[in-house]
């Protein structure tokens, strides 16, 4: 198990926020990304919560979607998932593949990416700060609250090619098992790392 770094002399590493928001909200009964949360959409709230802690944010949307239709600024950097509904893993792979070949400095200089679900706006600023402080090219950092692992997960750049090779609907779960010797668990007093939205009833419960 890799040891945590001391962030007392912290300097922000270049970490890209990558938000997964191409799902179809079947359990929610509608598009949960548009759910109203304090006057903004759920997806916008998640994005704004993560944005101050990373060097840039990219959001994975469904094929053909525009960010402003989801309450996001038009200039938001987005990657559109493939047109066929072929799973989270394939959508994630498409986004990371683009990042690997990007000529933009904000992508080339990143040592890691923070993989966040689009329905998790309650992760605390302190947790996000601590996670980003541990970012390194050859480490995967995951928060844990009361024994339960949550999000976001920080993937060092060494693991991006593996993310780009994902297929189907499993997402990155299999990679966490494959590279478990590189995973650092960061214990936090923050239920927000577990607070995703599956049904409308989750919104008042988790706020």
TrEMBL record:
Gene3D superfamilies: Spore Coat Polysaccharide Biosynthesis Protein SpsA, Chain A. Residues 17-180 form the MobA-like NTP transferase domain. Keywords: Magnesium. Coiled coil: none annotated. This is MobA-like NTP transferase domain-containing protein. It comes from Kushneria pakistanensis.
